[in-house]
């Protein structure tokens, strides 16, 4: 059998009301070398593994996205919402409905947190570590909250929007 290599397009086109959306294909997958710990609390080796897994799920899910993972398992996600807070609340509710324990789970976001509200809500649900791209002019607010509440946070420098 002869196999031909096929070059896939590097842009994605979506139709929408009265127009189109053209975006570059997201070829970046976060690795351990991309992680920059920005909090006093550092993630454990298991949390790092879970953060990278959650980030991979997040990357391949419709924006706005929040993903919870624990012990190499997807716990729940909130996807395609108009705000990151709505996606977070959706993910928490899904975990509750299915009886999943979020204590000790990690959280991934496809984009930065412009305010500390998401990390505050996530900590209240049991999240112990967060992965996000960083880049908000108010990053320090989320970092300070995490420092005050012993939550590990890492930045990747890469947004994973999927529209």
Q: What secondary-structure arrangement, pairings included, does this model have?
A:
Layout: E1 11-16, E2 19-24, E3 36-37, H1 45-59, E4 66-70, E5 73-78, H2 84-97, E6 106-109, H3 117-125, E7 129-132, H4 139-148, E8 152-155
Parallel strand pairs: 6-7, 7-8
Antiparallel strand pairs: 1-2, 3-8, 4-5, 4-6
Helix pairs in contact: 2-3
Structure description:
With 163 residues, the chain is α/β, with parallel strands linked by helices. Helix content is 29%, strand content 23%. The strands form two sheets. The chain has a six-stranded mixed β-sheet with strand order 3-8-7-6-4-5, with helices on both faces. A two-stranded antiparallel sheet has the order 1-2. The chain is globular, with a radius of gyration of 17 Å. The termini are far apart.
What labels describe this entry?
globular, two-stranded antiparallel ribbon, 163 residues, 29% helix, 8 strands, alpha/beta
Strand percentage, roughly?
15-25%
Uncertain segments are none
Radius of gyration: 17 Å
What's the helical proportion of residues?
25-40%
Q: Give the ordered list of helices and strands.
A: EEEHEEHEHEHE
What separation lies between the terminal Cα atoms? 37 Å
**What overall form do the CA principal axes indicate?**
globular
Total beta strand runs? 8
Q: What is the overall number of helices?
A: 4
Helix/strand structural class: alpha/beta
Largest sheet: 6 strands, mixed
Question: What's the overall average pLDDT, rounded?
Answer: 87
Widest β-sheet, arrangement of strands: 3-8-7-6-4-5
Quaternary class: single chain
């Amino acid at each position: 059998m002869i196999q031909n290599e096929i070059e896939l397009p590097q842009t994605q086109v979506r139709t929408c009301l009265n127009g189109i959306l053209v975006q570059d294909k997201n070829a970046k997958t976060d690795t351990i070398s991309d992680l920059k710990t920005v909090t006093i609390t550092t993630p454990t080796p298991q949390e790092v593994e879970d953060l990278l897994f959650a980030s991979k799920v997040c990357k391949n899910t419709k924006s706005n996205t929040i993903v919870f993972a624990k012990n190499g398992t997807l716990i729940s996600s909130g996807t395609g919402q108009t705000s990151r807070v709505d996606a977070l609340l959706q993910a928490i509710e899904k975990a509750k409905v299915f009886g999943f324990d979020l204590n000790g789970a990690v959280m991934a976001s496809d984009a930065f947190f412009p305010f500390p509200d998401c990390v505050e809500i996530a900590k209240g649900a049991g999240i112990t570590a967060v992965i996000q791209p960083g880049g908000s002019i108010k990053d320090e607010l989320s970092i300070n909250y995490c420092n005050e509440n012993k939550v590990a946070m890492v930045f990747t420098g890469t947004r994973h929007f999927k529209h």
